[in-house]
Design goal:
- The chain is of the alpha+beta class.
- The chain has one domain: Double Stranded RNA Binding Domain.
- It contains 2 helices and 4 strands; from the N terminus they run E-H-E-E-E-H.
- It has a 4-stranded mixed β-sheet with strand order 1-2-3-4, with helices on one face.
- The longest helix is centred in the last third of the chain and has 35 residues.
- The termini are far apart.
Length: 105
């Protein structure tokens, strides 16, 4: 999976990049069809913001988290992304089951 990390206001350290990649990879285990994730990290005053965008099951998924600790923000972002992956996967499976029932009838 291709994970790109961008930060216009500060330099992304190796430790921060590694933490981000591990968290996003954990979150995307639910989404087997994801090919890439774009992560955008921002800092304004004492608040860190992380945004992620990807596509899965034909839908664009967006997640955003904010807080005072960048590592905690990245973990919260990964949790939100994992929930969205699971929700999209469940919807795709439900629609597939409904479609197969219609074809069988």
């Amino acid at each position: 999976m291709n994970i790109s990390i961008h930060s216009p206001r500060f330099e992304v350290t190796a430790a921060l990049a590694e933490h981000t990649i591990k968290a996003i990879e954990r979150a995307t285990l639910a989404g087997e069809g994801a090919t890439g994730v774009q992560v955008h990290l921002e800092m304004a005053h004492d608040t860190f913001t992380a945004k992620a965008t990807t596509s899965e099951y034909g839908r664009a998924l967006h997640a955003e988290a904010s807080g005072s600790d960048m590592y905690a923000v990245i973990d919260a972002l990964a949790e939100k992304l994992a929930r969205q992956y699971t929700k999209a996967k469940d919807k795709a499976q439900d629609h597939a089951a409904i479609a197969s029932k219609r074809l069988a009838a």
